[in-house]
Amino acid sequence: MRFNQVKALVTGGASGLGLSVAKRIVGAGGRVCLLDINDQSGPRVAQELGNDTCYIHTDVTSEAAVERAVEESLEAHGSLNLVVNCAGVIGAGRVLGREAPMELSFFTHTIMINLVGSFNVAKAAADRMQHNEPGDDGERGLIINTASVAAFEGQIGQAAYSASKGGIVGMTLPMAREFARIGVRVMSIAPGIFWTPMVDKMPDHVQESLGASIPFPSRLGKAEEFASMVQHIVENIYLNGSTIRLDGAVRLAPK
After folding, report:
1. Among residues 17, 66, 145, 225, which one has the fewest Cβ atoms lying within 10 Å of its Cβ?
2. What's this model's pTM, rounded to 2 decimal places?
């Protein structure tokens, strides 16, 4: 798939990694719809990115809302051939907290947004992508989910988050195998420690400590590097059914 021919949905597209992906798509000549619940920055970002961008308020855990968003994106851009799932929550908390055990609602909330939300968007998009005209090697579309290195070595306090991201890793291959018959690829990216709005608010010494924990390059990942990986996956059709770690060789310590 050529990057300038992308017509995409990007969840969590109003900020962070999702926004960086959207900017790269539009900059290359593609079109994108931002799916987010941030009604303050979402419309503003879409306007700044220009006529090839739209914003759709979407709760990714709602089947009906996602179906509507997919239909609106088709109306806006005529087709859909790429989904990048970046919507998510941190979900940090100990199973046995100081005050009381973790509330089950906290765990399920994290799973619903990070894992179920990604699945919800992926299956709705794949249902539309299967009707696209096939391109090179019969490709009709691509779904890229965002996992995390915490899926592999989650830290204390990341039980909910790691479970949600581990689920994304676990569903990547079976979905890719199933969608092979319709020419839709499925990939996941597992980023390490990246610059995010949350990291920006941390004290300088904490930011420096996080950067020093990464072997090489010894710094936090940049959102543009995540977007670059998305572009590479789009353009390299032989990438399918795998999770790529994008982490500077970091391996998370227990805490």
Report:
1. 225
2. 0.96
